[in-house]
Known about the structure:
mainly alpha
Amino acid sequence: MNSKLTRHRVPFAALPAGSLIGSVSLVLLASCGRPQPTLVQCNQLTQLANNTVEDVQAIVQTNAAPNAAALTQVSERFDQSKEEVEALQLSDPQLQSYQQQFLTMYTETSLTARELAIALDQQAFEDAREARTKFQVAISQESTLVEQVNAYCEPQS
């Protein structure tokens, strides 16, 4: 079996004119051409990514207004995801590269969400605008990474 990440953007009112990390949905595909260990590892990585986005989406949907507490929850969820992805034992070199990219993205997203939460909590609006921009840069990596993982984990004919 193979997992595929599909990207959908979800608006987050705490980030005016922006959106939080896109959701990914798990699509099961028939295995064909990829070694079984690679397929298992693809599934492990994509399942963790799917769980992260589902949890972040739930936070976003529950908190429609700009809210430091929600951004703190988002930051904590990305910290948890970072630990989970870091714990994966991937032997496939390409998946190890994607794993490192997820770790970088999760670290940057967590840090910038926390910066934004602090700025909003302190009503430091200039700092909040700057943190928002950093946050958007951090999450912008997700689209390309999802496409790369999908292409690599796609069944080979």
